[in-house]
Amino acid sequence: MKKEDHKVRTWLRENRVRGIKLLQKIVQENSTRGNESSTQAVIIEKCRQLGLKLDIWEIGGNELKNHPAFFCDRKDFEGNPNLVAVLKGAGGGKSLILNGHIDVVPVGDETSWRHDPFSGHIEDGKMYGRGATDMKGGNVALLLAIESIIASEIKLKGDIIFQSVIEEESGGAGSLAAVLRGYRADGAIIPEPTNMKLFPKQQGSMWFRITVPGKAAHGGTRYEGTSAIEKAVLVIQRLQQLENQRNAKIKDPLYKDIPIPVPINIGKITSGEWPSSVPDTAIIEGRMGVAPEETMESAQLEMESCLQELGEQDGWLRENPLKIEWFGARWLPGSLEGDHPLMTELTNSFKEVMGRTPVIEASPWGTDGGILSNVGDTPVVVFGPGVTEMAHDANEYIVLDDLFAASEIIALTILNWCGVDDCN
Amino acid sequence: MKKEDHKVRTWLRENRVRGIKLLQKIVQENSTRGNESSTQAVIIEKCRQLGLKLDIWEIGGNELKNHPAFFCDRKDFEGNPNLVAVLKGAGGGKSLILNGHIDVVPVGDETSWRHDPFSGHIEDGKMYGRGATDMKGGNVALLLAIESIIASEIKLKGDIIFQSVIEEESGGAGSLAAVLRGYRADGAIIPEPTNMKLFPKQQGSMWFRITVPGKAAHGGTRYEGTSAIEKAVLVIQRLQQLENQRNAKIKDPLYKDIPIPVPINIGKITSGEWPSSVPDTAIIEGRMGVAPEETMESAQLEMESCLQELGEQDGWLRENPLKIEWFGARWLPGSLEGDHPLMTELTNSFKEVMGRTPVIEASPWGTDGGILSNVGDTPVVVFGPGVTEMAHDANEYIVLDDLFAASEIIALTILNWCGVDDCN
User: What range(s) does the Peptidase M20 dimerisation domain occupy (chains A, B) (predicted)?
Assistant: First the structure.
């Protein structure tokens, strides 16, 4: 073990209580959409104490709102800033973005929680609370990694660009704003809850709404109408076929253990108002997964062509076309080659800390990685503590040991990636 | 033409204005469910003037509510009575029930109406208003037929039992109450809007609700859940098969021009709350048509067995069974042989008035005829002015010429069915 590695790992092990207190403080602040500021304030104060160069701003403006990757239905962002905090390097090293989102999803049914959703309650080595896993735990892993280096008085060559962004859960406007503000780097780590796996690729996703027309009639003479539900069944079957076709094409070994790499999920259907009437409209809503190497546009086009084809084959739909809308939030896919140097560094650090080879997969969901890589041209690996299943659930928790292990792995990766200044 | 036939037809032709005014008065009263009394009051006063023996009562009581044909979600019937008004015959003739319901369906979207829904507005030989067709027009045809006989000073042998009942649109509790009060006869005519066709058979119907279980999961890992929508598609397909099987068995020539004699209508489906979640429940609601010769119970059993079979074939449904409920309103089917004397009399009267043979079919919807025939053991033919399509629609109207033609046909049928007393 190199001298610096030893220093940061020792510091992290000796400062667990400090790290847990920081996480607890952050988890105890509610940062659901529109309420991010109080949590952001804790992060800002931490970065100020660490001596990082702070850039705090409220996102917005036409460049952002007119950007093709901007999908956001939030009216304004006033009072809930983005934060970028830079640890300037001495020069001559590679830069690294450490990106975490500060927003959390709603708590859902509060009665399903055993403790207050913002309790930060600790039990059996786990801390509970909305956002503990997704992804305040990851954010603290980043901050502790940075602090371990600063506290160990190590001077880096490359810059560390720490980002605490809003709006990830709603489509990534916060990270997009950071990219448009000029923040790019030679690599990026996003500690989303991957359960300590490395995700060089991430599935993108987008929502669709298909409106299926029918013609009303009395149920007793239903042959005088056209059932929107019957036509909706044709649409669902065609989407199932499309899902099969799209997934049959995916040969990437990262997906070898994933039954449906890029699912088309039909999440919702509503049709009809009265049992004895023929329904005149059906509305299907769902989520289309986008493969890491694919563009959103080509995936959209594929679904649109497939439904167009269905429309041509069905007499009723030919005269009464389906309407397809792409609405709501969306996440760009991300793809990094498996032998990219950032993967190599992370893998090595992982082995050093964990004593085993990491599992490498593709994520089944989108992250802000798609924006950093596609728009910001920054190579991204998603890697962090916490398990996906807990992420949006009641009684969300993070295993604290994983958080500290991830922090050690990230700290070692920073040292190797950014490089240690010799004059240190 | 017989002397009495001539008299009643002449009276009806000379008293069109009187008939139209009566209809207008009745159409202008709102008799939606729970508001039947003011319309009923006009009918009662008319029957009193005609010298009929009135039986006015509020329905209810345990005999009614515990009857197997009672399906009603109305809390109480207070203030909105049923009416039976009898024209006693001299004896020695056949009795005839003339049954019409006084309740009308809601007006729906008022802005779709060109006039007030209770205007009774007349234009181009049509009277407009909720219930004009379904079935205040038919009721007035009955009353005018009775009045034409009384005004012509014709004495009948058999009794005429005029019934103005509530609750037909919600499952027939009014007619059931009349049957249970003892009103039965040798025949019955119900002037529902058949567009002047004779319906010796009527389709029954009942509502079903099928709850389809699934298992929630994130859409990106949808293979970890079970889509209730996908399972609902299996249910819909199986119901389509069942509909085919059931209709293939129907060989009755009355159905020769009807594409689907007894449809299974899927009227409603709701499933899912979020586009990117796997839906954990789907609810399907619909209307099952019941063939005239079938019982409600055997039709229910057929659907239940068919879904049971599906459950046995599908691994998920075997462990997580479908739930089937029979809920809401229902109408018993009705069936009269084509050569029944009442059919013969109605056909003859029709020919005399219209100069052509009537169209004879089976109704695609239920009426109170199912209760009169199944529970009251009274042979029923459904025949009346007005077109089905208008029945529950905005701008409902009745063609006044049809109303008077139906009234003439019914008057002649009464004379022949009940018989004219020779001492007349």
Answer: 202-313
Which residue segments constitute the domains of chain B, with CATH numbers given?
Answer: 3-202+333-418 (3.40.630.10), 204-331 (3.30.70.360)
CA distance readout (Å), A242 to A302, B228, B235: 8, 19, 22
Tell me, what's the ipTM?
A: 0.86
Between CA B247 and CA A20 the distance in angstroms is 70
A183, A84 contact by CB (below 8 A): yes
Please name the residue ranges forming H helices in B258-399: 296-313, 315-319, 341-354, 369-374
Which of A221, A258, A275 has its CB closest to that of B364? A221
From first to last of its 424 residues, chain A has per-residue pLDDT tens of 689 999 999 999 999 999 999 999 999 999 999 999 999 999 999 999 999 999 999 999 999 999 999 988 888 899 999 999 999 999 999 999 999 999 998 888 888 899 999 999 999 999 999 999 999 999 999 999 999 999 999 999 999 999 999 999 888 999 999 999 999 999 999 999 999 999 999 999 999 999 999 998 888 889 999 999 999 999 999 999 999 999 999 999 999 888 999 999 999 999 998 898 899 999 999 999 999 999 999 999 999 999 999 999 999 999 999 999 999 878 999 999 999 999 999 999 999 999 999 999 998 888 999 999 999 999 999 999 998 877 777 899 999 999 999 999 999 999 999 999 976 4
- For residue A135, cis peptide bond before it (omega within 30 degrees of 0): yes
Structure token digits, residue A65: 């709102």
Report chain B's C-alpha Rg in angstroms.
Answer: 24
Positions of A marked catalytic: 103, 168
User: Do the chains contact at A220 and B205, CB–CB below 8 Å?
Assistant: yes
DSSP SS3 for A254: helix
Contacts of B276 in chain A (CB under 8 A): 205, 207, 265, 267, 286-287
End-to-end alpha-carbon separation of chain B, Å?
A: 17
Enter the tokens of residue B91. 């004896």
To 10 degrees, what angle do helices A296-313 and A228-248 make?
130
Surface-to-core class of residue A249, CB atoms within 10 Å of its CB (0-12 exposed, 13-18 middle, 19+ buried): exposed
Tokens 């007499």 -> residue: A315
Q: Is the peptide bond before B343 cis (omega within 30 degrees of 0)?
A: no
Cα distance between residue A193 and residue A408, in whole Å: 16
Query: Phi/psi of residue A38, each to 5°?
Result: -70, -35
* A252 closest CA partner among A187, A188, A199: A199
Q: Mapping DSSP to helix (H, G, I), strand (E, B) and coil, where does residue B9 land?
A: helix
Catalytic residue among B29, B103, B169, B368: B103
Query: Are the C-beta atoms of residues B316 and B226 closer than 8 Å to each other?
Result: yes
Measured distance CA(A181)–CA(B284) in Å, rounded: 51
